[in-house]
């Protein structure tokens, strides 16, 4: 399924490529760091930073965009998206930014043009909440974290 998403490049992202799928069946579009070329960002272990992408989106009603980590950055450097998945709502028109955190043991340099995260477009279902006196019982009941095995 393909949907139309309007995108605009912001002034500091004009020369960067638009987000793109890296393979025919990829679920996410790669997001690019729109940092100044002369000022790469060094994330020391434990540090976090909000990294600009130089783009803004207009998603259709009924959709969201999820900002997710890139697995290669996570496994090689411990670099991940802190609020995974970050949600971009259909009515947001500001710059897409990525909240990166370095969970690795070494500093990581984030440079202009680096692929830093992926963007997954997904449908949204709105819930109609209905308050009831009690919920239907299940075999699991209220057993939470770790209750279904290791």
Kindly provide the name of the CATH class of the domain at 25-123. Answer: Mainly Beta
Mean pLDDT: 96
**Structural class based on helices, strands and sheet pairing:** mainly beta
Helix content, binned percent = under 10%
Note the run of SSEs as H and E: EEEEEHEEEEE
Cα-based radius of gyration, to the nearest Å: 19 Å
Rough outline = globular
Q: First CA to last CA: what distance?
A: 36 Å
CATH architecture of the domain at 25-123: Distorted Sandwich
Features:
4-stranded antiparallel β-sheet; 150 residues; 36% strand; 1 helix; single chain; Deoxyuridine 5'-Triphosphate Nucleotidohydrolase, Chain A; 10 strands; globular; mainly beta
Describe this structure in words.
By secondary structure, the chain is mainly beta. Helix content is about 5%, strand content about 35%. The chain has a domain at about 25-125: Deoxyuridine triphosphatase (dUTPase) (Deoxyuridine 5'-Triphosphate Nucleotidohydrolase, Chain A, Distorted Sandwich). It has one helix at about 70-75; strands spanning about 5-10, 30, 40-45, 50-60, 65-70, 80, 85-90, 95-100, 110, 115-125. It is globular and about 60 Å long. The mean pLDDT is about 95.
């Amino acid at each position: 399924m393909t949907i139309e998403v309007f995108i605009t490049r912001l002034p500091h992202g004009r020369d960067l490529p638009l987000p793109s799928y890296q393979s025919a069946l990829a679920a996410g579009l790669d997001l690019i760091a729109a940092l100044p070329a002369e000022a790469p960002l060094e994330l020391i272990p434990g540090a976090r930073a909000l990294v600009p992408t130089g783009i803004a989106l207009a998603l259709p009603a009924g959709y969201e965009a999820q900002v997710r980590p890139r697995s290669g950055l996570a496994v090689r450097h411990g670099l991940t998206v802190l609020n995974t998945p970050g949600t971009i709502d259909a009515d947001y028109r500001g710059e897409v930014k990525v909240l990166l955190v370095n969970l690795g043991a070494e500093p990581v340099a984030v440079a202009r043009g680096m692929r830093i995260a992926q963007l997954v477009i997904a449908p949204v279902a709105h819930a109609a909440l209905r308050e009831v006196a009690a919920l239907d019982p299940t075999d699991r009941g209220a057993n939470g974290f770790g209750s279904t095995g290791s």
